[in-house]
C-alpha cells in the first residue's frame, strides 16, 4: 500500500478538493483508504475568539439608533 501526504482544502459545498498533481498520481477506478487530519485551534485562539464575541455582544447590547449623535451642520 502506498501513502501520500499533501495539503487539501474543503470547498464551500463541503467537498474535499485535491490538488491536480495528486489526482494525476492516483490510480483510476481503484478503492482508496482516506484519513483526514486537520488543525484544531489552540487554547489561546479559542480564548481570543470568545473574548472578541463577548466584546462585540457587550458593545451592541443596549445600542439603539436614538443613541447616535448626528451633526446638524
Outline the secondary-structure elements.
Layout: E1 9-10, E2 16-17, H1 20-25, H2 43-60
Antiparallel strand pairs: 1-2
Q: Can you walk through the features of this model?
A:
A hairpin with a 5-residue loop joins strand 1 and strand 2 (16-17). This protein has helices spanning 20-25, 43-60; strands spanning 9-10, 16-17. The chain has one domain. The protein contains 2 helices and 2 strands, in the order ββαα. The chain is mainly α and 73 residues long.
List segments where confidence is low: pLDDT < 50 over at least 5 consecutive residues: none
- Strand arrangement in the largest pleated sheet: 1-2
Total strands: 2
Intertermini distance: 76 Å
Biggest beta sheet summary: 2 strands, antiparallel
Order of helices and strands: EEHH
Name the features.
single chain; 73 residues; mainly alpha; two-stranded antiparallel ribbon; 5% strand; elongated
Amino acid at each position: 500500500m502506498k501513502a501520500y501526504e499533501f495539503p487539501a482544502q474543503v470547498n464551500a459545498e463541503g467537498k474535499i478538493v485535491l490538488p491536480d498533481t495528486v489526482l494525476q498520481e492516483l490510480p483510476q477506478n481503484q478503492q482508496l483508504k482516506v484519513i483526514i487530519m486537520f488543525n484544531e485551534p489552540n487554547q489561546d485562539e479559542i480564548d481570543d475568539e470568545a473574548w472578541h464575541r463577548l466584546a462585540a455582544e457587550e458593545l451592541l447590547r443596549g445600542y439603539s439608533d436614538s443613541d447616535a449623535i448626528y451633526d446638524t451642520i
